Structure formats: C-alpha cells, structure tokens
C-alpha cells in the first residue's frame, strides 16, 4: 500500500479518486481490511472518507430521507433514526458486535455488496436510490451526481465508474410498519443465514419484501407480494388469518429458494423453512403494528 489520502469533502474525494484510478475508497474499513488480511485485496492507495462530514448525517428531501453514505450502523441504530426508518435501524443494530457497528457504514455495506449485508434487503424492499458522485460535472468543482436504484448496483447491472463513489442513499419515508428479521447460524458472529426486509406501503396498497443472504443479491418475490397485498383490507383492519400468513411464507420461500434437483437436498429444505418462517413473522408483525 503506497499512500493514504484523507479528503475533507466529496469534491476532494472525487478529485483524489480521479487522480489515482487504482485507489480504493474506505470509510469504516470492516470489509476492506478483512479482504486485505485474507490476502484477497492489495490496494495501491486508499482514499479515506472518515473526515467528510457531509456524508455522516441525513436530511429531509421531498418525503424522503437523504442518508449520508458515511452513517455508521451505531448511529442508525439510535432511537431518532429508528423513528424514521425502523427496519433499517433494526438491521443496523443486528450488524454485528459493537466494534463493527461503530466502524461499519451504510455506504460500505452497499459497496461491498456481501450477500449477508444486513442493510441490503431493507434497502431493496424500500426501493432506495443511490446518489453517486463522480467526475464530469459543470462548475468549479467539476463533480457530477447521478442516481441509480440500489437494486441495479447490487445486481451488477451498473457498476461504479472510475472516480465515482456512493455519496448518499435516498429512502422514502413511508410512515408505515416495516420489519427486519434474520436467522443466524455458525458462519460467524451475527452473520445471517437468511434475512428479510418487509415494508407496508398503504398509499400504494402494497407489500414489499426482500430476502437477503440466500443469493448473491436480495431477492424480491414479486408475485407473493402482489398476492398477499390483494388479501389485505387497506381501509380497515389489516390483519390476516394465520393460514394466509403461512401461505405467504411458503410462497416467498418457494420463490427465493427453488428446488435444485430431485430429491431436494436437506440443506435446501432447511433454508426454505427458515425463509418461510422469517417472511411469515415479518408480515405478521407489520400487520399487527
């Protein structure tokens, strides 16, 4: 590793990344240092983002929260943030031990795109949008901004270009119940075997659900979402019968953990049961909130 640059603004960070195409941006460094220690990554240079105050908080914007990519899991887990985006706050509190929550950031969770990233299914269910900053803008700074759905980046359909980094995440403020749940195993402390982000959107009479950790990116069981939304009395009591909750869980599990041959492997059956239980419980909690 040859150099570390510590910009004080996004403009300076973009300039540094543009001048050093091989440099890697780093905030908390929890995923990056794990990769370095494992011998999987040897960055020629680092651009540290920890001094950029503009990405360490959030602001309101036309019915949305514009979240800075430098927000730590610990900060998102606090009550004032939880009042805005409860599911994302729950995911942040579940992100690991205190040292990980204190260092790890929202932007890092997205950029590393690890399948077990706790924030990812919540952001997918919320249909969050990334604000990408990079070179090429007009004016004195020469910094441009563009927006892409978070699901596009996670799916690899549109990767970050040279000199770009995640500046902000725009999340709709639904003012409606939302839930994050995960099941952990023996793969590491707090690491998800499966997770679910589920939100109700009464204005659109919709249910949005994303399953994490079972695939390289969060999965949206769209048919299951549409089916269960059609059963909900959006103008009255939103509760559903236990049989409907059970069927929703099975519908989600079948969509996200498909058969991989006959007979179905025991591990696949166990994962499918886990996803079914998480989806059922998440919907039940959201409807009873």
Could you please describe the fold and organization of this structure?
The protein is α+β, with helices and mostly antiparallel strands. The protein has two domains: 3-172, Uridine Diphospho-n-acetylenolpyruvylglucosamine Reductase, domain 3, CATH 3.30.465.10; 179-288, Enolase-like, domain 1, CATH 3.30.390. It is 38% helix and 23% strand. It contains twelve helices and eleven strands. The protein has a five-stranded antiparallel sheet with strand order 4-5-8-6-7. Strands 1-3-2 form a three-stranded parallel sheet, with helices on one face. Helix 2 (30-37) links the parallel strand 2 and strand 3. Helix 10 runs antiparallel to helix 11 and helix 11 (242-256) packs across helix 12. The mean pLDDT is 90. Keywords: FAD, Flavoprotein, Oxidoreductase.
